[in-house]
Amino acid sequence: CMWVKSHRQKKGPPGPFPWPFVGNAMQLGQLPHLTFCKMAQKYGNVFKIRLGSLDIVVLNGDSTIREALVKHSSAFAGRPNFTSFKIISGGKSMAFGGYSDIWKAHKRIAHSTLRAFSTINTETTKQFEQHVISEVQDLIQVFLRLSSGGQYFYPYHECTVAIANIICALCFGKRYSHDDQEFKALVGRNDKFGQTVGAGSLVDIMPWLQAFPNPVRSLYQSFKDLNREFFDFVKSKVSQHRETYNPEITRDMSDAFIGLIDHSPGAGLSKDYVEGTVTDLLGAGQDTNSTALTWIILLLIKYPHIQQKLQDEIDRVVDQDRLPTSGDKTQLPYVQAFIYETLRFSSFVPITIPHSTTSNVTIDGFYIPKNTVVFVNQWSVNHDKTTWNNPHIFDPERFLDEHGQVDKDLTSGVMIFSVGRRRCIGDQLSMLQMFLFTTIMLHQCSFQSNPKEQLTMDCINGLSLKPLPFTVNVRPRGNKTREVS
Ligand code: HEM
Fold it and tell me: For this UniProt entry, what is the primary localization, expressed as one broad class (predicted)?
């Protein structure tokens, strides 16, 4: 009787039958989040799969995910001990590092510094906004140049440069030209990064694949190369900062981290955490936001009537003789609804960075032992039929109430920055950035799809979902901006 009781208490989650060697790896498909949604229908919101020889628990649905990540926050705050994670940010990554007291101090420093340089108060918000505005203006000029003579172009790479510049300006006080090939090459390789650390990646799960010449091995090699190159770039910038460091003047976030880490031994972080933190912020900040911007442009050209409606709203609120600012936000509910709908519909970070359990824990009645790898399926939250009507349809209006105002209960139901201890620290900065890019771009230009192209919503998977390449033509609106020839 005692045995039955303890046995029942330790009932593990159900799941599909795992095949020898590969487990369920071959069942994941190109877009694992969709496979997980199907499996959740069959097995419930907590289920177990096996990848290689590793048992993985997959969490689905808003209430289950919150029960785990918020209610049992420290039990779910770990990261798996994957080899690939140790290569990131010189082995001193906060985003990919395990849960510990050092990690807590590290996250606190990273979060408070990022906020201090972006959205902590109206003064810093204004300064940050200035960076963003000049990047959008520059991006618009590049778009118009690439569109001259009615040409169409793929916008992703230019978006990456603009977004990377914003975070570079915060970290190093320096931006780069769109013509700087070296910088473009450095920031333009997010896909390989995401494909290696994303939830469907086989690199860590079946490490023996690296022993054979195959796509996994070459992906892993280029992952190592790009991480080293990226880290070396940051190292040289940080060492220039150390050489010219003056405690009286904090020029940028690198100086702030040097002050908080090198010059405050009490924090318990060795000096190389400065480089680790800066590399994390540059990496996390640019891939996600340039993907967001590419989705925004795709959806604008896919739904011209929505683009028109956005422009109508912006025109009503912002005159021709000034640019939109964050102060206009409350008067632009349709723009806000459009951004939330872009995040919900694309769910472009469909599965968070993998978590792992730091202790034994029970969720929805299922026992999960310590050190279990956990995948968190954010897509399942954003496409849950019980929360959203026709979740597969792109419809910004779903977020507006009968007075045309943004319904906060609904917007808070979108899950893209995760929840709990591992929640993204760039959420506010990113929301502000997306708002400014969208409003300024639409205040100044119109976006047209290429009539020779069939636009699809299909994606390339990685840590983030990117739309398949598409081309666009950008035209200035009225006499607001002159086309650059
Ligand atoms: C982590 C989403 C922008 C810094 C994450 C995670 C997600 C996410 C899903 C993983 C959370 C988890 O594992 O549970 C996004 C999205 C963004 C964005 C959708 C843009 C729209 C940024 C920016 C920065 C940033 C701009 C910094 C400049 C980080 C860091 C972590 C993180 C440092 C690791 C947190 C931890 O492990 O505790 N983000 N992010 N993110 N993000 Fe973001």
Answer: membrane
- Provide the token pair at 88: 């990131």
Nearest-Å Rg of the Cα atoms of the chain is 23
Does ligand 1 come within 6 angstroms of the Cβ of 429? Answer: yes
Residue nearest to atom 34 of ligand 1 (CA): 95
ipTM above 0.90, yes or no: yes
**Contact (CB, 8 A) for 421 and 427:** no
Which ligand 1 atom is at minimum distance from the Cα of 421? Answer: 38
> Is 445 annotated for ligand binding?
no
And the tokens for 63? 């209430």
Check: CB of residue 24 under 8 Å from CB of residue 49. Answer: yes
CB contact at 8 A, 203 and 220: yes
In degrees to the nearest 10, what's the CA dihedral of 148, 150, 151, 156? Answer: 80
Mutate to test the pocket of ligand 1, among 424, 425, 435, 465 (most ligand atoms within 8 A of CB): 424
- Alpha carbon 254 to its chain centroid, in Å, reads 22
Q: State in Å: Cα 350 to ligand 1 middle.
A: 12
